[in-house]
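Cont'd.
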Amino acid sequence: MDLLQILVNGIVLGALYACIAVGFSLVWGVLNVINMLHGSFIILGGYLTFFAWFHLGVDPILALPAVALLLYALGYALQYLFINKVVTSPVLTTLTLTFGLDMILYNLMTVYFTATPRRVTLDMGSADILGVVMPMDRVLGMGLAFFLTGLLYLVMRGSTIGRAIVAVRMDRQAAALMGIRVNNIYAITFGIGALMAGAAGAVFAMVFPVTTNLTGTFLGKAFVICVIGGLGSVPGALVGGIALGVIESFAGFLIGPQHAITLGFVLMLVLLVVKPTGLIGVKGYE
Amino acid sequence: MQQQKSRRLLRSAALALGLFAGLAGAAQAADAIRIGSPLALTGALASEGAKQKLAYDLWLKRINAVGGIQVGDRKLPVELVTYDYQTDGKRAGQLAEKLITDDKVDFLTAPFGSGHTKITAAVAERYGVPIVAVASSEPVHDQGFRFLFGTLAPSSGLIDGMLDVFRKAKPDVKKIAILGRDDVFPKIMASLMAKGAEKAGLSVVYNELYPVGTMDHATAITSMKSAAPDWIYVTGYTADLVLVAKQMSDLGLKAPIVTMITGPAYKEFVDTLGPLAENITSASWWHYSAAYEGDDVFGTTKAFYDEVLAASGQEPDYVHASSAAALITLQKAIEKAGTLDREAVRKALTELDIKTFYGPIKFRADGLNDNRDLPIIQIQGGKPVVLAPAAIASAEMKLN
């Protein structure tokens, strides 16, 4: 029974991981920007959700869309005003820029929100199915994670904006010749990345204590998940996230939690050697 | 002509030398005592850093109100030089060095926590500057530092105290599960408990560490659940412990005794967890209900409690108290030495034996405050109550 419980733990955690990674993967895949701000975006989303719940009594699920839209606006503005200026430079330049922006955002949050861990206390209890315990707030988080990644997938496949993003990803020059305003698409993509981060933060605030010193952890997870799953695709982030969640879960059980996180990184290294596109990545975006 | 010129040169050189010596003399006869403190005012330890700073400021106000510290036949006011090291260990080391070489402080206090104490103590040792730590444990004090002193008692005292009290409250306790954070202080508290529990005849049914930055404890909790322990013992910092407590409740892990080091000593822990914090036990180095009297600037535990409450709206915890105690020990050692000479003050610190609002302070050879009866606490009705030592106990222990 333990093994089944471990598997369920892993899948629930993995869905949350996917939610962390999907925005990061999109930005990296389309813009070729390693967005160091991603972890701070998630925490900002988490804090905004917490404050809306704590001070205004807003249900976190209702706060989620508003928080996500706010983050979209922030992401769009940052890309439009700053990152677009250097977006065609080598990846190290954009990395340095987002790193600097992250330091500003991170420290502003630490100063104004303090690093005290905060949590939305829903405490919805647990469901017990055949001896497997499922915490309801995590199940809700998992549902939201699947819903959000699914929604993003549909937007990317079905909408004009989504097709334009994919076109820019495939060939920037050709897309520009077809009349796509590339800089605008970049800003929208970065905005969607931030939106997904904000939504992930709202989901996390219901499940985890949110504190600013988690930003690095989130960023690290997003990185590993992208490499495992494959860059630039929504299904890649989902597969990578669930794979990492399940692997960490079983590793913690079999070899102890001390080395569970290491195993995720080992898997990443192995994949980089044998299958650099990730489990289901597209060739050319490794 | 030539002779005259060289004589003039000699004279001006002598004059310059004299002037220089005069200046140096003036610098030596300091008109204030400067104490340097790298503080974590931002970053992960910002809340501990803020408590440390508050306690320092309260002490500073009181000591300067009486004219400062008696050094020989003079009374010198105290200046505190602080910097924010942003919870970045490397920066703490750099700032300790800057405080010594650039700001020319006479003495240092260490930042909160064992890891950062170790870094700054190594710098202080190199320059021969006495440094008093406010939260440091055995792995810092076994490095052979001569200039490091810490106001906390050894961690092993906490373990023995808990084993005593809990086994009295539940004599049939047999199985303990231990989950510790892989980090300086939480790790030593986990390994000390594993040893202590085995010695006391308990069986350790689960004993694992989790790495810094762990975001999920579901697996560890599932494993502990299968082991069905009577006592669950978890170490870590507030964010970790909140997550563990939450996931324990989610996954239905229960035990008659649940101990978390050092979460329940903090108000934030109870605030964030709400009812989930109920009945969680812990051990602490200080609790305000343990009333002491001393001849320091605060005088009584009550006076310190009132002052912190008035200044911050918060009840003081061990971080506040231990920080104020650090400056009190420096003051007493300077008075005893009668000079600001660092070696003399170091010697005075080794011989110190004082009573303060914080309790008695007397350093062991390794610089830790000599063992004494440390309070064992439990969250009852949303507030920490003291279970032991008997003299200050305010409630009976409740089992889950």
